[in-house]
């Protein structure tokens, strides 16, 4: 189950974000009964979360709060089920940084949603090899999502 709440005061493609999250969880072989919460917040709220939970000043684009420390299964493992956690996105920040990353505001939100989801599944990017794996997987999922939308006429 995927729950999305828009507390940001900004319009967002909530249906598209839920569709992408559903697609990504399936692509990563996470059990469909797993629970994920996506929360869209304003800059002031994101700044408060960023300072409280990361000890860093200013608003950021995405934060992830894992619950059951789930991991994507190996090829010979059953899909895990449980509480993935919360992904908090700030549409104002993602829209502002989209152009510098060569994406539309919606594309930036999608990219960061997957980034947050991968953090919930234990991925990190502190070390060069971790970063290569995580960002490569992020790009793969987004490319597969784009292909899926093109094939189903959702563009």
UniProtKB/TrEMBL annotation:
GO terms for biological process: rRNA processing. InterPro entries: MetalPrtase_cat_dom_sf_prd (IPR023091), YbeY (IPR002036), YbeY_CS (IPR020549). Signal peptide: none annotated. Its cofactor is Zn(2+). Gene3D superfamilies: Metalloproteases ('zincins'), catalytic domain (3.40.390.30). The keyword Protein biosynthesis does not apply. Binds 1 zinc ion. It is found in: Cytoplasm. Residues 64-84 are annotated as: Disordered. Keywords: Cytoplasm, Endonuclease, Hydrolase, Metal-binding, Nuclease, Ribosome biogenesis, rRNA processing, Zinc. GO terms for molecular function: metalloendopeptidase activity; RNA endonuclease activity; zinc ion binding. It holds the Pfam family YbeY. Its main location: cytoplasm. Its EC number is 3.1.-.-. One of its GO terms (cellular component) is cytoplasm. Zn(2+) binds at residues 115, 119, 125. NCBIfam families: rRNA maturation RNase YbeY (TIGR00043). Belongs to the endoribonuclease YbeY family. Single strand-specific metallo-endoribonuclease involved in late-stage 70S ribosome quality control and in maturation of the 3' terminus of the 16S rRNA. This is Endoribonuclease YbeY.
């Amino acid at each position: 189950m995927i729950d999305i709440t828009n507390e940001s005061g900004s319009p967002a493609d909530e249906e598209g974000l839920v569709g992408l999250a559903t697609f990504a969880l399936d692509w990563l072989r996470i059990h469909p009964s797993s629970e994920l919460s996506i929360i869209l917040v304003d800059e002031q709220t994101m700044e408060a979360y960023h300072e409280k939970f990361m000890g860093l000043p200013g608003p950021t684009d995405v934060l992830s709060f894992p619950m059951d420390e789930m991991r994507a299964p190996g090829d010979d493992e059953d899909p895990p089920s449980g509480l993935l956690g919360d992904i908090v996105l700030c549409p104002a920040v993602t829209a502002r940084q989209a152009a510098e990353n060569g994406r539309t505001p919606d594309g930036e939100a999608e990219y960061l949603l997957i980034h947050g989801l991968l953090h919930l599944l234990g991925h990190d990017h502190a070390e060069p090899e971790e970063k290569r794996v995580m960002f490569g997987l992020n790009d793969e999922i987004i490319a597969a999502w784009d292909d899926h939308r093109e094939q189903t006429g959702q563009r």
